[in-house]
Design goal:
It is a single chain. 3% of the residues lie in helices and 50% in strands. By secondary structure, it is mainly beta. It has five domains: 188 residues, Sandwich (Jelly Rolls); 76 residues, Immunoglobulins (Immunoglobulin-like, Sandwich); 151 residues; 77 residues, Immunoglobulin-like, CATH 2.60.40; 72 residues, Sandwich (Immunoglobulin-like), CATH 2.60.40.10. The relative contact order is 0.10.
C-alpha cells in the first residue's frame, strides 16, 4: 500500500514528464479489427499495454472513416478502458479528416474507485450517424496525469489521434514514437436506443436538511422519482429537493420514460444525524485503516463540506484530526470553491508530541464564523512527516479525500492512487450561533426617544443613543452610565433605559434611579429605599402588575416576590425614581 502511494504521488509531483518517456515498439495487428457486430473499434480484444499522459492537458481519440459508418444508424454508447478513475469528458464529432469538424455530442462521466477496465458510457442523446461523414470520438481528462489507455498498435493511423493544445491541433501518437492504439469502442444500433437517465447528487445527507438532486436524461423523456424515506416520497421532473427526517440508508430512483423504452438509475443515500455533538464528518466513527504520504515533499489533505451540510451551523468550534505521529501540523480553513479551496479565512499551527496519537482537537484561537451559503474546506499540511494523513474506508463522497502536493492544484486521493479508497479522518464540531437581544428604552417617552437596539452575537459592540425632545435633556442610563451616545459590549440579553429631565433649570438635580438586585430576577428582587411611599411594578404597556406600600423609613432594602410574574421586561417605580427590571424564571 505504501509503495503504491509513493509511486502514485511521484507521478503527481513530476513536472518533467514528456510523452516519449513511455515509447513502445511499433507493430501491426493482423486483420481488420474496426468492425465486430455493432462495435466499431481499433483495439479489438488487445490487452492494455500502458496509460499515456503528460503534464500538459491531452485530448485523445479515434476517427472512423465514413465507409465504416455506412449501414449504422445510431451511436448509442461508447466504451472506454479506465485505469485511473476520475472525471472524463467525451466528445463526438462528424466530419473532418485531419481534425474533428462538427461537434454533435458532449458528455461528462465520473468513474469512482473500483470502476476500472472497460466501462460503458451510455449517450443521453444518441447520435444519428451520417454515412457521408467521418466519425470522431475523443476524450479529455484534465484532472488526471495519465488518463489515456492504449493497446498494441492496430496498424491504422486513425486509431491514435492526439492533441496537446486542448483539441485545436491534432496529430498521431506515432509522431511521438509511440506504437499504440487507443482503447475506445463505439457501440451502434439500427433502431433508436432506449432512453438514459443518471442521478446527480451527494450520497450522504444530513437529517432534516433539504438535499437537492437532479437527473440528466435523454431529451424528451418524462422523469419520475421514487424517494425512499423522504418527504415527499415521489416527484416528477428533472430535479427534486426533500427532507430525510430519520437516519438510515435509502434508495432514490429516477425513471425516464419515452415511447421507445424506460430507463432507471438508483442512488443510495446515507442519511446521517449530525445533531449529536454538532459534528460534521465523512469518517463518522470508522477506525483508521491506513496512512498516506510522500517521502520527499509534504502533502496537503482535507475535506470539503458542501453548504447544504452547514445549515444552522454558524460557528466552527473545533476541528478533530486523527494524529499518528507527533509534530507540528498546519490547519487552514477556506470558504467557497468547488474544485479548489476558495478564500482563506483562518490558519493556525498545532503541535503534538510523540505520545499524542488518536483524535486531537485543533481549536481556533478566536470565534470562527461560518458562511452557511458557501462550501467549507478544512485542510491540513505537514512538511516533514512521511505519512501524516490518516484515512478510513472510503465513504463514497468525493469531497472526503481532497489532496494537493502544492496547495494550489487539487485532486482526489482516489484518482491519484485508486488502490487507496480512503476518506480523511477529520471531524468538524460546529454550533448554532446564539443571538442576544439589546433593548433600548426611553424612561419617559414624552421627554425623548432612543435608538440602537436589536439582536447581536456574543462579543458584538453596539452603539446606543438617547435623543431628548426640545425642553428636555438626557441625564443617565438606568445603570448609572452617562455616556451618550454609548457603546456596549454584548454578553447576554440586556436592557438600557434612558433617563430624561426637564430643562426648567440647567442645573436641575438629576433623578437617582432605584437600585434593584438581582437583575434579572426570578423569584424575588431587592429594592434599596430610604423613604416611605409605594413601590409599583409596571409591564411594558404601562399596566401596574404589583404594588407594595413602604410604611416606615429604613436604610435596609425591601424584598418583593416576583415569582408569579411572567418572563419579560418591567419597570419599577417609586415616586419620581424608576429603573427597569428583567424577570426570567
Amino acid at each position: 500500500m505504501i509503495n503504491m502511494m509513493k509511486k502514485s504521488l511521484l507521478l503527481l509531483m513530476s513536472v518533467l514528464l514528456t510523452l516519449p518517456m513511455l515509447a513502445g515498439t511499433r507493430s501491426a495487428m493482423a486483420g481488420d479489427s474496426k468492425s465486430a457486430g455493432d462495435t466499431l473499434s481499433y483495439c479489438g480484444d488487445q490487452p492494455l499495454t500502458n496509460t499515456l499522459g503528460n503534464h500538459h492537458i491531452i485530448d485523445w481519440g479515434v476517427m472512423f472513416p465514413a465507409d465504416q459508418v455506412a449501414g449504422r444508424s445510431y451511436l448509442s454508447e461508447v466504451m472506454l478502458y479506465v485505469e485511473h478513475t476520475g472525471e472524463y469528458t467525451l466528445n463526438v464529432w462528424q466530419g473532418g479528416t485531419a481534425a474533428p469538424d462538427t461537434q454533435v455530442c458532449t458528455q461528462t462521466v465520473t468513474f469512482a474507485p473500483g470502476q476500472t477496465g472497460w466501462q460503458r458510457i451510455l449517450l443521453f442523446d444518441p447520435v444519428a450517424l451520417d454515412s457521408t461523414q467521418n466519425l470522431w470520438v475523443t476524450f479529455s481528462a484534465p484532472q488526471l496525469l495519465y488518463p489515456a489507455a492504449a493497446c498494441i498498435y492496430s496498424g491504422d493511423s486513425n486509431s491514435d489521434w492526439i492533441s496537446l493544445d486542448e483539441g485545436t491541433t491534432w496529430g498521431h501518437l506515432s509522431d511521438y514514437n509511440y506504437s499504440n492504439s487507443w482503447m475506445i469502442r463505439c457501440i451502434t444500433s439500427q433502431t433508436l436506443p432506449p432512453p438514459v437517465v443518471r442521478i446527480n447528487g451527494y450520497d450522504q445527507a444530513p437529517v432534516g436538511d433539504s438535499l437537492p438532486l437532479t437527473a440528466t436524461a435523454t431529451t424528451g423523456t418524462t422523469v419520475t422519482w421514487t424517494l425512499q424515506g423522504m418527504t415527499p416520497s415521489s416527484e416528477t421532473g428533472t430535479s427534486v429537493a426533500g427532507l430525510w427526517n430519520t437516519p438510515g440508508t435509502y434508495n432514490v430512483i429516477a425513471t425516464a420514460t419515452a415511447a421507445n423504452g424506460v430507463a432507471r438509475d438508483t442512488l443510495t443515500v446515507h442519511v446521517v444525524d449530525y445533531t449529536q455533538g454538532d459534528t460534521v464528518s465523512y469518517c463518522l466513527d470508522r477506525p483508521v485503516v491506513g496512512s498516506v504520504g510522500y517521502n520527499e515533499i509534504g502533502i496537503n489533505w482535507g475535506i470539503m463540506l458542501p453548504s447544504a451540510y452547514l445549515a444552522n451551523r454558524d460557528i466552527l468550534n473545533n476541528v478533530l484530526l486523527y494524529v499518528m505521529e507527533g509534530g507540528t501540523y498546519t490547519m487552514r480553513i477556506y470558504q467557497g470553491g468547488t474544485q479548489t479551496p476558495g478564500q482563506l479565512v483562518y490558519t493556525h499551527t498545532y503541535t503534538f508530541d510523540s505520545t499524542q496519537t488518536g483524535w486531537f482537537g485543533c481549536t481556533p484561537d478566536s470565534l470562527l464564523h461560518i458562511n452557511t451559503a458557501q462550501n467549507l474546506w478544512v485542510i491540513f499540511y505537514h512538511p516533514d512527516i512521511v505519512y501524516p494523513a490518516m484515512g478510513c474506508n472510503y465513504m463514497g463522497d468525493p469531497n472526503s479525500d481532497w489532496l494537493s502536493a502544492d496547495g494550489t492544484n487539487w485532486d482526489h486521493l482516489n484518482n491519484v492512487a485508486p488502490t487507496l479508497p480512503y476518506s480523511w479522518l477529520i471531524q468538524c464540531v460546529t454550533s448554532h450561533e446564539v443571538l442576544y437581544t439589546v433593548n433600548v428604552l426611553s424612561g419617559n417617552t414624552s421627554m425623548g426617544t432612543v435608538s440602537g437596539g436589536g439582536t447581536f452575537p456574543y462579543g458584538a459592540s453596539v452603539s446606543i443613543e438617547a435623543q431628548p425632545y426640545d425642553g428636555y435633556r438626557f441625564v443617565r442610563w438606568d445603570d448609572g452610565n452617562t455616556d451618550n451616545p454609548r457603546t456596549v459590549t454584548v454578553t447576554g440579553n440586556a436592557t438600557y433605559v434612558a433617563q430624561f429631565v426637564s430643562l426648567d433649570g440647567i442645573d436641575a438635580p438629576a433623578i437617582e434611579p432605584l437600585i434593584l438586585y438581582p437583575n434579572p430576577a426570578s423569584e424575588w428582587v431587592n429594592i434599596s429605599v430610604a423613604e416611605q411611599g409605594e413601590v409599583s411594578i409596571l409591564d411594558v404597556t404601562g399596566r401596574t402588575v404589583l404594588t407594595q406600600a413602604i410604611r416606615q423609613s429604613s436604610a435596609q432594602a425591601i424584598t418583593l416576590d416576583v415569582s408569579t410574574l411572567p418572563d419579560g421586561l418591567y419597570f419599577v417605580k417609586m415616586g419620581t425614581r424608576h429603573s427597569s427590571l428583567i424577570i426570567h424564571h
